């Protein structure tokens, strides 16, 4: 049996590949990537798979029985790209698609949710058996800002007192590998999130504790936070999106307490203390 992994050279994809190699062996895996040369170090077969070149998709899926569709990273293009992949999967005879969606996609106010909801609907209409992994926030989305916070002397955001149930990227990768290497998951929708919920004030306190520096959390209005991000060099659109996601966090969009992720992987998710420690190395 062959398992195809889209986005295999991405940050999540690489972690999934390593997890699957341990469980199933390299010979059963195929990296479906735009540039196979970038997949050379994965230690698995690779083939050209370009969302914007539909002619590569059916050919790339030949012989693939199970497909991990890691959502594309081109916001605004995802529905079209995912539709092409699902159509190609149907033509190629793929028997099961596992898709990485967004936590509480159907009710989330995050701007990211729409394309995930549309993709989930495409899967449901495709006739192909599917499993949906609704991934919560990666803790790295926030710990990546630690160096800047240390430089500025404060951690800034717009999440207010919103509780964030994030988990390390590796935890979500392990969940995908568990699902792809075991039975009983077809038709399921998993709401995946970290065991521990925290506020950005809690995160700032943890940074302060581990560094011995006083790093407060400064909560800013959405537009002001977006301005801070653009001043750091982020494009306007991306800065506004990030600020809006923080506001979504303040409304509970990133909170989930049912511990589905840790139950799936069979151990607690990576604690915030560990993620902060890793970011400080």
UniProtKB/TrEMBL annotation:
Residue ranges constituting the NAD(P)-binding domain according to the UniProt record: 7-179
Pfam families tied to this protein: NAD_binding_10 (PF13460)
SUPFAM superfamilies the UniProt entry points to: NAD(P)-binding Rossmann-fold domains (SSF51735)
Stretches of the chain forming a coiled coil according to its record: none
Name the UniProt record assigns to this protein: NAD(P)-dependent oxidoreductase
Record organism: Sphingobacterium gobiense
């Amino acid at each position: 049996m062959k398992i195809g992994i889209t986005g295999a050279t991405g940050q999540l994809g690489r972690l999934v590949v390593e997890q699957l190699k341990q469980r199933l062996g390299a010979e059963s895996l195929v990296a479906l990537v735009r540039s196979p040369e970038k997949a050379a170090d994965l230690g698995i077969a690779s083939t050209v798979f370009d969302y914007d070149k539909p002619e590569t998709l059916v050919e790339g899926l030949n012989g693939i029985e199970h497909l991990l569709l890691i959502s594309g990273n081109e916001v605004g293009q995802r529905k079209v790209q995912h539709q092409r992949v699902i159509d190609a999967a149907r033509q190629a005879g793929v028997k099961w698609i596992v898709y990485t969606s967004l936590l509480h996609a159907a009710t989330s106010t995050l701007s990211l949710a729409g394309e995930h909801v549309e993709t989930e609907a495409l899967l449901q209409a495709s006739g192909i058996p599917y499993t949906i992994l609704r991934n919560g926030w990666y803790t790295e989305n926030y710990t990546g800002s630690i160096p800047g916070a240390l430089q500025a002397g404060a951690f800034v955001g717009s999440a207010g007192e919103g509780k964030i149930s994030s988990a390390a990227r590796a935890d979500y990768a392990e969940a995908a590998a568990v699902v792809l290497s075991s039975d009983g998951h077809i038709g399921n929708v998993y709401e995946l999130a970290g065991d521990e919920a925290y506020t950005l004030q809690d995160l700032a306190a943890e940074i302060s504790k581990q560094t011995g520096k006083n790093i407060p959390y400064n909560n800013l209005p959405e537009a002001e936070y977006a301005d801070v991000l653009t001043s750091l060099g982020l494009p306007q659109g991306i800065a506004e999106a990030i600020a809006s996601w923080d506001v979504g966090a303040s409304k509970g969009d990133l909170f989930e307490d049912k511990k589905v992720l840790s139950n799936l992987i069979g151990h607690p998710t990576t604690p915030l203390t560990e993620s902060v420690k890793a970011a400080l190395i």
